[in-house]
Write a sequence for this structure.
């Protein structure tokens, strides 16, 4: 048998997390947020398999999130095996197929460990031990999927039925009979009575076994995935799949496409504690509760308040005489939701999109590979931003057709190119960039550079940028 160090975690990081708005947004979704503990959900997934028994993980993610994923690895001092960029979201079956092709390319004798990036596992050491122990079944050609006894009806989870009760001693290796995704309320109640298990979305298998199943049950999807993989290109530290074939794939879930149909699929009980973080009530279930059953993150005060989740990092939030609420305060939006209606939060993001708002897409703080910027004030003809540039990073060499910019350094040292001139500015020094002037801002120092940028002009949109050169390969 191959050594267990050939287990290759494949972290899926493609979700939008709309039901965790206003913290989770399309361009900075839930897996990048600190919702439960000091680490983000993605960082927790990375650290969960930081063990000599596991190879460096591959991450399959949205192209728009590539620099955020890379930065999250850096923040926990870990290096990915690769970061693979999906040109479009096509659900789990294509994403896992790409991960299997990657592992086969790295090591044909390796195993693929599929891990969603938005789960909470309470016992990481036990998780690693269980995966290591079950690698024998995976090497022997089984597709091992993991479930937990369904203790209550939750229509937002997936359900699995196997030959044996998942809580019994005979559950390991039990053949899977069926998968049911997100049943209606009354159906979920019946599934619990019938002994179904919750589907964790975690699985372990040999790449050739999974790819063979795809060939049997979804040959068209496999062919397009193989074409997208074979025509891949390298882009800095990322692997960019060929766009046309991948976008031609019909979206499909791995449960219906492979897991339910493959005779080699077996169920193992996940004995480590598990929670799918998909709504604010699920954050409440995972979080540390005070004596009144409240989960509080940030600056909040409560009086006669029970069983609430309050997330308010930048503002003082006070709650009095309320029960079973989610109170979420961000820089530019506030959500107050009854626990029983948490599944309706994503309807808010739909309404925002219909009204032309961008508050379902991004926060006032927007992250870039060089750092971030935060809009402080926006009015007719001018805008004020705070730019934070990481040490050693630089913005693109650029110019604007419709706006001028005034930069004031408030912390650190700025290296500035302005036309043919180059200069260093320190705290409390400033410069003016006229409309149409080629310019670049860089941080040559060892601490973050903070600059207040005042824009003025007839149009202040982010698309008014002509990039002449970019360290990160971005286009205008």
């Amino acid at each position: 048998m191959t050594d267990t160090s050939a287990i290759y975690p494949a972290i899926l990081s493609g979700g939008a997390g709309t039901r965790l708005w206003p913290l989770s947004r399309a361009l900075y979704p839930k897996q990048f947020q600190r919702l439960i503990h000091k680490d983000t959900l993605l960082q927790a997934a990375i650290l969960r398999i930081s063990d000599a028994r596991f190879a460096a993980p591959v991450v399959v993610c949205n192209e728009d999130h590539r620099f955020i994923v890379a930065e999250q690895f850096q923040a926990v001092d870990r290096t990915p095996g690769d970061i693979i960029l999906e040109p479009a979201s096509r659900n789990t079956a294509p994403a896992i197929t790409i991960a299997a092709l990657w592992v086969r390319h790295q090591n044909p004798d390796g195993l693929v460990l599929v891990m969603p990036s938005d789960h909470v596992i309470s016992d990481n050491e036990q998780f690693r031990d269980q995966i290591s122990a079950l690698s024998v079944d995976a090497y022997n050609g089984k597709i091992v999927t993991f479930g937990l006894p369904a203790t209550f009806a939750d229509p937002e989870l997936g359900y699995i039925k196997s030959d044996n009760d998942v809580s019994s001693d005979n559950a390991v290796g039990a053949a899977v009979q069926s998968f049911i995704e997100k049943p209606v309320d009354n159906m979920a109640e019946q599934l619990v009575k019938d002994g179904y298990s919750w589907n964790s979305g975690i699985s372990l298998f040999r790449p050739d076994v999974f790819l063979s199943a795809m060939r049997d049950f979804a040959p068209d999807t496999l062919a397009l995935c193989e074409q997208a993989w074979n025509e891949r290109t390298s882009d800095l530290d990322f692997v960019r799949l060929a766009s046309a074939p991948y976008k031609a794939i019909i979206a499909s879930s791995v449960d219906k496409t492979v897991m339910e149909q493959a005779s080699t699929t077996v169920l193992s009980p996940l004995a480590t504690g598990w929670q799918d973080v998909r709504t604010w009530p699920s954050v409440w279930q995972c979080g540390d509760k005070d004596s009144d059953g409240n989960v509080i993150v940030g600056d909040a005060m409560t009086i006669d308040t029970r069983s609430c989740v309050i997330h308010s990092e930048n503002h003082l939030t006070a709650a009095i005489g309320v029960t079973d609420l989610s109170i979420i305060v961000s820089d530019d939006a506030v959500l107050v939701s009854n626990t029983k209606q948490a599944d309706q939060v994503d309807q808010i993001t739909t309404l925002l999109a219909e009204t032309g708002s961008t508050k379902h897409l991004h926060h006032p703080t927007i992250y870039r590979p060089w750092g971030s910027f935060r809009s402080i004030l926006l009015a007719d003809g001018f805008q004020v931003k705070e730019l934070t540039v990481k040490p050693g990073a630089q913005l693109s060499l650029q110019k604007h057709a419709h706006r001028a910019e005034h930069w004031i350094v408030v912390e650190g040292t700025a290296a500035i190119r302005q036309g043919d001139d180059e200069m260093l500015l320190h705290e409390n020094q400033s410069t003016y960039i006229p409309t149409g002037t080629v310019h670049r801002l860089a941080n040559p120092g060892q601490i973050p550079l903070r600059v207040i940028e005042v824009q003025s002009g007839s149009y202040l949109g982010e698309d008014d940028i002509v990039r002449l050169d970019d360290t990160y390969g971005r286009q205008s």
Observations:
- Residues 4-276 form a domain with the Spore Coat Polysaccharide Biosynthesis Protein SpsA; Chain A fold (CATH 3.90.550.10).
- The chain has three domains: 4-276, 280-354, 365-469.
